[in-house]
Specification:
By secondary structure, the protein is α+β, with helices and mostly antiparallel strands. It has one domain (7-94): OB fold (Dihydrolipoamide Acetyltransferase, E2P) (Beta Barrel), CATH 2.40.50.90. It has helices at residues 31-37, 66-85, 95-102; strands spanning 7-14, 17-23, 46-48, 54-56. It has a two-stranded antiparallel sheet with strand order 1-2. The protein has a two-stranded antiparallel sheet with strand order 3-4. Helix 1 (31-37) runs parallel beside helix 2. The longest helix is centred in the C-terminal third of the chain and has 20 residues, at 66-85. The protein is globular, with a radius of gyration of 15 Å.
Length: 105
């Protein structure tokens, strides 16, 4: 839950929308990480494209920053804990693995 002022930092954009980091009023904790910790969200997969730019699964180019890198690292740790709890979206296991397998014909 977000109470008070929220700061938004934009990390990428595309025709589909924006990729943002939402900071709580304390300026340290993020709504993104809170959702992952509460088993209500997951960390999107990122990769480098052929030009060396970091992109998400929809090929949205992300701004490279130490802030984003540290957030992703902490969110991955939170996601692993959430997966082990088998609660929320992880209730029936790792949903991402099933999606990857279904693309292989």
């Amino acid at each position: 839950m977000v109470i008070g002022k929220t700061e938004i930092k934009i990390c990428g954009s595309s025709d589909d929308g924006l990729l943002c980091i939402l900071y709580n009023s304390d300026g340290i904790s993020t709504v993104n990480e809170a959702l992952v910790s509460a088993c209500l969200g997951f960390v999107p997969k990122v990769k480098k494209n052929k030009w060396g730019k970091i992109v998400d699964e929809k090929n949205v180019v992300l701004r490279e920053s130490s802030e984003l890198a540290s957030l992703v690292e902490s969110m991955i740790v939170s996601e692993e804990k959430a997966k082990r709890s088998r609660d929320g979206i992880w209730r029936y296991g790792d949903i991402a693995e099933e999606d990857e397998d279904s693309n292989n014909f």
